[in-house]
Amino acid sequence: MSVIQFSTAGGIVVHDGRVLVLRSSRYDHLRLPKGHIEEGETIRAAALREVCEETGYADLEIVTDLGEQDAEFDSPAGHVIRHEHYFLMRLSSERRVRRKTDDISFTPEWVSWGGAVKDMAYDEERRWIFAARAWLGEEEA
Asked: What is the pTM of this model?
């Protein structure tokens, strides 16, 4: 089995006590916006670009670096090792642009902290919701 390795960057965007996630229309679960880091791109720039491309929110600010992790899984193409880096972000305005994604099966949605935790597809991504909430000192409403 071949090994596929790549790096991604993304963010947990918070605004007015809610979290921006991507809802899968196919499986009715949530994912965090993230994507591949392009050659020559910084991790921070990749995170801002990917979150904008996947959600349509153009004016994002990084609040803090939440950290990184490796996610490993098997796919039809081989064993995948994905190095993920996440940032806590906020909106500097609610300006939207056209989403730059071919994947229309994911729709941006604002949810409560509890909704993000409950409906997150993967425990690895749920961990980042907890980290962002703890950093902000937010209590579940």
From this structure: 0.90
